[in-house]
Amino acid sequence: MTATFTPSVSACPACSAAPAAEELAERALPAQARIALSLPSAHCAACITAVEDALIAHPGVKEARVNLTLKRAMVDADPAVTAADLVDVLDGIGYEAHELDASAIAATATDKAGRDLLMRMAVAGFAAMNVMLLSISVWSGAEAATRDMFHWISAAITLPTIAFSAQPFFKNAWTALSKGRLNMDVPISLAIGLALVTSLWETSLSGEYAYFDAAIALTFFLLTGRYLDYRTRSIARSAAEELAALEVPRALKLVNGEPVETPIAELQAGDHILVRPGGRMPVDGEIIEGQSEIDRSLLTGETLPVFADQGLQVSTGEINLTGPLTIRATAVGEQSSLYRMAELVAVAESGRNLYTSLADSAAKLYAPGVHILAALSFVGWYIYSGDVRTALNIAAAVLIITCPCALGLAVPAVTTAASGRLFKKGMLIKHATALERLAEVDTVVFDKTGTLTAGAPVLLDVSDHDSQVLSVAMALALASGHPLAQSLVKAATQSGAKPAQVEALKEVPGFGTEGQWNGTRVRLGRAAWVGAKPLSTTATYLQIGDAAPVAFRFVDALRPGAAQTVAALKAAGKEVLLVSGDTAPAVETLADQLGIDRWTAEALPEDKVNRIQELAGQGKHVLMVGDGLNDTAALAAAHVSISPASALDAARVAADIVLLGNDLDPIADAVSTAKSATRRIRENFRIATVYNVIAVPIAVIGLATPLVAALAMSASSITVSLNALRLR
Fold it and tell me: Regarding the domain delimited by 26-100, which CATH topology (the fold level of the hierarchy) does it fall under?
C-alpha cells in the first residue's frame, strides 16, 4: 500500500499524520462488547484469580476484571462472545453467574463526589499553607506598605480558592435557606463570607488585621472533616438503579418458532419467549411449554427451587434451573415485578433521607444564636464607637471564633472513629446518619435464608446411609445442578465415598436424575417421582429398581453467631422478629431454635415493607437485617438496615451497613458502638458550647485578633478530634 503526503507550511509530520494514524488504528481495532456479570458466590482473592483466569482463557475474551466488593465481573470480548457463553464457563468451575445490564451499571458506578471533595480539600490546604506563611510575617511585625502587600497577596490567593473550595458549604447553605431552614453550613458560609468582606475592607484601608488566614483555614478544616466522613463509607448508589441493572438486557423471542435474540425494550405483552436452563426470566409471564425447576430465592427467599410446569406464573429475575421453558409475556419493562420492586425501594429511600441528623438538629439552636450574637455585637459596637469598620470587624470575629469548625467536625470525627472500630470487627458503615439511627433502634427484624442461615442445604446423618446407596446417590447427584444434589455430592465426598458406575445418566427437568446401575434403573429426585411418601423436612429421594425409596434429609445450617446475636439483642432489651419468604414449617423451626417469639412466613417483598411500616407506625425504630432481592425494599424502608457482604448487589446497596464476614456477632456490638458514638457526638457539641462560653466574650469585647481566632479554631478542632478518638 502506498500513501501520498502533501507538505504544508508550519505543520509537523506528527501532527499531519495523527488523523491518518487514528483512522488506521480504529480500522485495525476489532469491535468489542462489554459484558457485565454478577458473581454472588465470589468471596475471596482466590475467587478473583479463578474467575479471571477462566474468563480470559475463553476464546474471544480480551480482558476480565473482578470487583470483589461488588461481586461483579466486567469482561471485554469479541462481539461473537455472549454472556451465556461466559455464564457456562464460570458454571464449569463452580461459580454462579448472571448477566447484568452494563450500561445501567456504568451510570451508577461513578465516584465523582469523593474526587470532588478531595480536589477541593487539596486546593484549600495548599492555599492555606501559603496564606499562613504570609500571615506569620504580618504577625512578626511587618508594617505599612509591606503589611499591605502581604495582605493583598493573601487576598489574591484566598479569594479564588474560597470561590472554588468552599462551594459545597455555599450550595448546602443556599439549599437550606431556600427551603426556609438552617443547617450547619449556614453559619459556616456566613463566617467565611464575612471574614472575606471585612478582610478586603481592612486591606483596602491599610488596616492592621485581616482574616484571610482564618477563612482559608476554616475551609480546609471543614473539607478535611467532610472528606474523612465520606471515606468511611462506600458510595451509596441508589438501590432502585441497582435493581434496574439486574434486568436481563436481551431475551430469546420466538419468531415463527425460531429463537431470535431481542432487546428487552422491544418485547411486548403476549410475546413467546424461550428461557434456557441457567437463564434468568427477562419478563413476567406464564409458562406455556416445558418443565423445569425455578430458583426464586432472589425474589421470595425460598430455600429450594420450585417445580415449574405449564400454567405457572413466573417473575422477572427468577432463574430457570434445569429444562428449557417457553413463557408468554404478561408484563414487560416498567410493568414487570422487578420495576415495581424498584419503585418500592425508591419510595422507601426518599422517606429515609428525611431523617434529621444530630448536626442539623444542633444547627437549629446554634445557628440562630450565633447570628443574633454577631448582629448584636455589630449594633452594640457601632452605637458605642460610631465606626462601621470596627463594628464589622468584631462581628466577623464573633462568627469565626464561635467554633463552626468544631461543630462541623463534631459528627465526622466521631463517625470516622466509630466506623474504623466497626470496620476492624467486620462492618462497613455506608450512610452518613447510619450510626445515629442505629443508636435509636428498639426492634430488630431478621430475614431467614442467607441471613440467619447460610442459605445452603446441609446433608444430615451421612453415616446412616449404606456406602453402596451413598455411592449410587452421589453418581446421580453429580449429573444435576440442583442445590440438594450439590450438597449431597459435597457431603459424600467429605465422607470419603466414591461415585458408583452409573450409565445413561439423564436429568429430567423438574423431577430429578436417572440412570442405569448394573442393569437396574436408579432415580434421585422428588418424592412423587420415585413413589416415596414426602417427609415434613427438606429431602431428596433415591430409588434403586423396585426397592423402597431412601430419603436423604437436609437442613439449612445457621450462620455463625446467629444464636448469640439474637440472645444479645434480646438481653439488650430489643424486640426481635423473623420475617421470611420461606415456608411456614421452616420459619417456625428456626424461630423456635433461636428463641424468636414473633415470626412471619411466606412474606412477599410488599409484605415485608408493610410489616416495617406497621412497626414504624407504632413508634418503633426498626433495624432490618436481610440479604435477598426480596429484602431490598424492606432494607430501604427500615429506620436503619444491615446486609451481609454475600448479599445481592441491590440489597447491599440499599443497606446502611454491610456485614463483611460470615459471623453475625458484630451486629450486637454495632448497636452498642452506635450508642457510644451518639454520646460522643453530643459530648462534642457540649465541648463546643463550653468553648463558645469562654471564647465569645473575648470576641465581643474586641480582643479576638486574627491570630487569636486561628489559635482558638485549632484548639477546638483538636479537642473535638481527641474526644472522638476515645471510641477506638
Answer: Alpha-Beta Plaits (3.30.70)
Q: In this structure, are residues 328 and 271 in contact, taking their beta carbons and an 8 Å threshold?
A: yes
Give the dihedral of Cα atoms 39, 579, 486, 510; nearest 10 deg: -100
DSSP assignment letter at 451 = I
Selection from 118, 127, 52, 63 nearest residue 90 by Cα: 52
Coil, strand or helix at 699:
helix
Rounded distance, CA 95 to CA 543, Å?
30
Those residues whose C-beta lies under 8 Å from the C-beta of residue 545, and which sit 6 or more positions away, are 520, 521, 522
Closest CA to 168 of 227, 111, 128, 237: 227
Residue with cell 427438606: 538
| C-alpha dihedral, 339 to 344 to 346 to 348, nearest 10° | -170
**pLDDT tens column, 658-670:** 787 778 988 988 8
Where, residue-wise, is CATH 3.40.1110.10 in the chain? 456-558
Residue 373: pLDDT above 60? yes
Q: What percent of the chain has pLDDT over 90?
A: 15
Please say whether the beta carbons of 699 and 376 come within 8 A: no
CA dist., res. 168 & res. 504, Å (int) = 69
Among the listed residues 5, 681, 709, 659, the one whose alpha carbon sits nearest the alpha carbon of residue 394: 709
Considering the four listed CATH numbers 2.70.150.10, 3.40.50.2000, 3.40.390.30, 3.30.70.2740, the one that applies to the domain covering 248-335 is 2.70.150.10
Angstrom distance (rounded) from CA 405 to CA 408: 5
Distance separating alpha carbons of residues 301 and 323, to the nearest angstrom: 22
Interval 121-178: pLDDT, tens: 899 989 888 888 887 767 666 677 887 888 888 889 999 999 999 888 888 888 778 8
Q: Which CATH superfamily is domain 427-454+559-674 in?
A: HAD superfamily/HAD-like (3.40.50.1000)
Report the catalytic residues: 447
Which residues 6+ apart lie within 8 Å of 714 measured at CB?
217
Decide if 579 contacts 447 (C-beta within 8 A).
yes
- At 334, is the secondary structure helix, strand, or coil? helix
Question: What is the C-alpha to C-alpha distance for residues 521 and 423, in angstroms, rounded to an integer?
Answer: 55
- What stretch of H or E contains 123? helix 112-139
Residue 269 cell numbers, joined: 405483552
Q: How far apart, in whole angstroms, are the C-alpha atoms of residue 195 and residue 218? A: 10
Q: CA of 102: how far to CAs of 36, 52, 339, 355, 705, in Å?
A: 5, 18, 17, 33, 57
Question: Quick check: helix, strand or coil at residue 555?
Answer: strand
- Write phi, then psi, for 554 (nearest 5 degrees): -130, 155
Task: Give me the amino acid identity at 240.
Answer: A
Over residues 642-659, the mean pLDDT reads 76
With beta carbons less than 8 A apart as the criterion, state whether 436 and 357 touch. yes
- The DSSP string of 563-574 is HHHHHHHHHTT-
